[in-house]
Amino acid sequence: MRKNMLAAASHAGPVPPGKRLSDVYAISALAALAQPTRLAIFRLLIKHEPVGITAGVIADTIGAPHNTLSSHLAILVRAGLLRSSREGRTIIYRSDVDGMRALLSYLVNDCCNGHPELCDLLSTAPSCCEPVPTKTALRRNSVVSKRAR
Q1: Residue pair 122/116 in contact by the 8 Å Cβ criterion
Q2: Omega within 30 of 0 (cis) for the link into 126
Q3: The model's pTM
């Protein structure tokens, strides 16, 4: 492994849209999950897809101190495994299902002599975890549809 790869991995950030997952991004995501609290956070958020949950609920559920939770969440967001969205004064955290799919795809890409579809390790079915519209977006859509009448 190249010496600078590990340093870059901790600061890789999510994969830019349309780009293929590289070694640095994969190492960043795997390193983020290689810590018990962050793994517990990711698994909890996967269970709460597609709605997501707040940081307070995450902290209470996994028993993480509030003062360290934000660091764990930031690492997972930078690794492309979580997303956050603001709903009023509340921040909702969700797992980034597409980011996890990209990581899994990267890991099994060479399966079956470069044809992972033969193993059916990764389903090509559409995402079951599409984001749920926020209250603000629902209100905005309601106002737009009333104006159109």
Answers
A1: yes
A2: no
A3: 0.69
